[in-house]
Design a protein that fits this description.
The protein has 19 helices and 9 strands. The protein is mainly alpha-helical and 508 residues long. The chain folds into 2 domains: 195 residues, Fumarase C, Chain B, domain 1 (Orthogonal Bundle), CATH 1.10.275.10; 300 residues, Fumarase C, Chain A, domain 2 (Up-down Bundle), CATH 1.20.200. Helix 15 runs antiparallel to helix 16.
Length: 508
């Protein structure tokens, strides 16, 4: 049995985050973290006992921070905060996003700078271990004073208020779940409400999950591009490592190396073969374009890795009974990374769609049947899957508009510049699903085209990709609805299973 991941606020890695948020890994509060959490809690208790005006503890919030709250009402203030801020709307966030939020909030509080009790952190971790997923609406955060509305919905479930989402998608009242499990609802003490909702947990969860999805998309793009390269009888001279060395782009060299390995032994993509003139950019510039996506992924990962262990609370508690007010909850760096990653991953879909269009166009596909139809005219072949790819790419062309470019002031202009990072994350998730489907179309269409090139065979990677495809999708001998095929292949791209099978046959 795998040991629970110790949560200490300092050492969470991206792979560990994914193991908990997506794979259901178990967690526990690290013994080394408990003393720091207890010490920070005592600082809050001393401030309350001394009657010190402390933001979020004995004052109001936002533009009401000049209102001092009597110590006797300080605990009620935290409950009022959660209830008033749980103002989100829209569909439930996906379970992996919410599990990521639970883990990130617990990890930030475990660092010992937030003034909460250890039992609060442990209850967040218990939700993860019991796979209790709070209902958190998608819309409502502006990504600046933390992800306030989403985190308030999450936090209310600790108090047996709000709702949970079950595995089958039903919503169940938190009170009912607590009764069924024999869990006593938590009662918040001073500072705990604001500590729960002042943070970047939603934006960070979006970014971490999207980086993982982006890795899978890039690898699937290399495979699909190799299939198309073979099917269109491309000239592999453009993959020469010396070109990448002269360009000074390590990402370009890595992509070219991967595609060369996939094309090894090809009887179709042969340097110096039949001259067609120079290849189109969607073949000739595969290393350069996919390198840009790889760089975008690298940037996003560099942003998210330290954020996994960030304290994004306000105020932050330090030794010496010091409360420091600042803006660690502001999501601008995350919003920029989310917007940038959306653009970088959009390239994969738009690039693939152009190869699909070339594969079905008899004027451009180098001798293949029109639309790869078994009997062109009587059958339409893959005419309409290219329409689907074009429609999804067009949608993505609007989704890449940067959310972070559109700040709107909130809280009576106290919070006068916000990041809009939560929307950047939400639309990135939709864009990723669109790209998965566009790549599925390319994989299917290019696989069919490769079979039309028989008896010549493609590279070892292309042939492996075709075998993987045929395990899920039958060859096209007459017109049928391709919708189910596309969804099946998109699912295999999303979960990484198709690329893993290709890598087993041909490491790249």
């Amino acid at each position: 049995m795998t040991e629970p991941l110790p949560v200490d606020g300092r050492s969470l890695t991206l792979d560990q985050f994914l193991a908990v948020s997506r794979a259901g890994g178990q967690v526990s509060l690290a013994p080394t973290a408990r003393p720091a959490v207890v010490a920070s809690r005592r600082i809050v208790e001393r401030a309350v006992a001394a009657g010190r005006p402390t933001y979020g503890v004995t004052t109001g919030f936002g533009s009401l921070s000049d209102q001092v709250i009597p110590a006797a009402e300080a605990r009620a203030l935290q409950l009022s905060l959660l209830r008033s801020h749980a103002s989100g709307t829209g569909s439930a966030l996906p379970a992996d996003v919410v599990r990521g939020m639970l883990l990130l909030r617990a990890n930030a509080l475990a660092r010992g700078h937030s003034g909460v009790r250890p039992e609060l952190v442990e209850r967040l971790l218990e939700f993860l271990n019991r796979n209790l997923v709070p209902f958190v609406p998608e819309q409502g955060s502006v990504g600046a004073s933390g992800d306030l509305a989403p985190l308030a919905h999450l936090a209310l479930t600790l108090l047996a208020e709000g709702e949970f989402v079950t595995v089958d998608g039903r919503r169940t009242s938190a009170a009912e779940v607590h009764r069924g499990l024999g869990l006593a609802p938590l009662e918040l003490v001073e500072k705990e409400g604001v500590a729960l909702i002042n943070g970047t947990s939603l934006m960070t969860s979006y970014l971490a999950l999207s980086v993982a999805d982006g890795r899978e998309l890039l690898a699937a793009s290399e495979v699909a591009a190799a299939l198309s390269f073979d099917a269109l009888r491309g000239d592999p001279s453009s993959l020469d490592d010396r070109l990448g060395a002269l360009r000074n782009l390590p990402e370009q060299r890595a992509v070219a190396k991967a595609v060369r390995r996939l094309l090894r032994g090809s009887q179709l993509a042969v340097a110096g073969g039949e001259w067609h003139g120079q290849d189109p950019y969607t073949l000739r510039c595969i290393p350069q374009v996919l390198a840009a996506t790889s760089q975008g992924l690298g940037y996003a990962e560099r942003v998210v890795s330290p954020e996994l262990n960030a304290v994004s609370d306000n105020p932050v508690v330090f030794d010496g009974d010091e409360f420091v007010n600042g803006g660690n909850f502001h999501g601008q760096t995350l919003a920029l990374a989310l917007d940038t990653l959306a653009l970088a991953l959009h390239y994969l879909g738009s690039f693939a769609e152009r190869r699909v269009a070339r594969l079905v166009n008899p004027a451009l596909n180098r001798g293949l049947p029109a639309f790869l139809a078994p009997t062109p005219g009587r059958s339409s072949g893959f005419m309409i899957p290219q329409y689907l790819a074009a429609a999804l790419v067009n949608e993505n062309q609007t989704l890449v508009h940067p959310a972070s470019a559109g700040s709107l002031p909130t809280s009576a202009d106290q919070e006068d510049y916000v990041s809009m990072g939560a929307w950047a994350g939400a639309k990135l998730r939709r864009l990723i699903v669109n790209v998965q489907r566009v790549l599925a179309v390319e994989w299917i269409v290019a696989g069919q085209a490769l079979e039309y090139r028989r008896p010549r065979s493609g590279g070892v990677g292309s042939e492996a990709a075709l075998r993987v495809l045929r395990e899920r999708v039958a060859a096209w001998s007459e017109d049928r609805s391709p919708a189910a095929d596309i969804e099946r292949v998109a699912g295999g791209i999303a979960d990484g299973s198709m690329v893993r099978q290709v890598r087993t046959a041909v490491p790249f």
